[in-house]
Specification:
This protein is α+β, with helices and mostly antiparallel strands and 190 residues long. The chain has helices at residues 20-25, 33-36, 42-53, 59-66, 70-82, 114-123, 148-161, and strands at residues 101-109, 127-132, 139-145, 165-173. It has a four-stranded antiparallel beta sheet with strand order 2-3-1-4, with helices on one face.
Length: 190
Amino acid sequence: MRPPEQARPGEARPGEAPSARARAASPRQAPSRALREVRLDEVDREIIRHLQEDGRRPYREIARALEVSEGTIRWRVRRLTDSGVLRIVAVADPFKLGYQMLAFVLISVDPGAHERVIEQLVAWPEVTYVSACTGRYDVYIQVVCRDQDHLFELVSTRIPAIGGVVRTETFPELKMHKVAYYYPARVPLA
């Protein structure tokens, strides 16, 4: 057993914040409130814009476009990802992967059952998006299914089996006309 004042590489010592490596090792933990509140300047926003256009764009290319050093870009991207502001992922076309049905499903839930229903839905691999909402429905999900039978089983059997589900309404997506994970620059309030 090591003395309490020592820490393994990558671990925080008592009273210190965990390193980026330690935070990355536990992805289920939400970033602390302090980490989430990152002030973005114009350089940060431009870096995000470049990476939204092409998540694989080289840092050197971004640095040239913004007239800053590559090290500045690397450091800022790390800060943005560590804080949860930015996440770089690959987005695949579900139809080209062999899925035949995409749909969004609106779900009305009994009071008090929201957390349990959402927890279940988040765990299902065919559920690609889950959001709590207000109005006639309480939960919005987007699903990707192998075929119509898979979608039918999902909405007629599996979702009601969660319990606490009052009703659902399903909207199959016939054709995707736009899929974008690009957020336009926020316009400052006057």
